Amino acid sequence: MKPSLLAIAPFALSIGLADTIRLKDGTEFEGFVISEEGGEYLVAVQVTKTIRDQRKIPKADVLEVIAEKKDELAYEKIKDLVPTPDLLELEDYDKRIEAVEGFIGEYGSSPMAKKASEMLKTLDEEREVIREGGVKFEDKMIPGDERDEKAYTLDAEIAASKVEKLASLGQKTQALRAWEELQSGFPTSRAYLDTIPLAIKLMQSLQTSVESQLATLDERLKKRADGIARIPEKDRARSQQAIDEASAAYERRVAQEKEAGIKWLSLDPFHKEPLNATQTRLRQEIQRLERLDTAQVPDGDNVWAESWETLSGSPTMDEARKAVSNARSARLPEPYLKKLEAKMPSN
Asked: Is pLDDT at 105 greater than 90 in this prediction?
């Protein structure tokens, strides 16, 4: 009895595996040899993504049948899990480790199993560093104790890298929100000062966009209204309702952002008030930053390093208090002051 194409081929194709049937005339088919009958192969062929066919091919016409290597396909899915990107969390490592372990469990005898084992070793080692409070940043694993020692400077650099990444993706509003976090969290760090030119550039670019949207707003509103008026009456109300619902959803979102203290609001080209508010804020911030005398900003990184070194030794209580006081004068935020205070001598 012939194997059924419906029973065999769809299942095989659905799991992404296929043989290559190469004919002597150079023709190739992607499919499956279902059976051999005398001088012929019965082959399930994938004609298109959605169309499959069953064909009989004389064995005399076949140069070779190349079986797809399942281990190679499976390895393709995990091969880019190492090297890992910066700033992965424990759960991200767990997912990567699970995927590599799954490959090794199923294809332990594969030539790729050795590479997979090396990947697993790397992932396990990095995960242990993260578990102990470390971080991967700029392609370097930083152990927990080293991270603590450089906490203020390192955290500022990580925050700045987020700004730079969002800016590179063209996400201006999100980048400015990240920069606001950098500015409020690390106001005396070199990372903050170094990103000021980027922040100004982002603001100027957003300012150009906002001014253009405000200048054309009335025209676009009229054009939209005219377009709705031309819609057949039976569909007009539904179109207007969709616009009203989208508008209400946007207004709720902006209200939530204001309540959460978000300074850089989401923008919509048909809503004037947030555009006006953003335009005003952009002008004020660009002017403030361009006038900022960075020479008057305390060197928070240096003060942090000196205070940490003092408190990591055997300081007297007066020396410890002075170290914390210097950090406070350098406008280090409260979370970092608490880190320093935790290292003060008990007596």
From this structure: yes
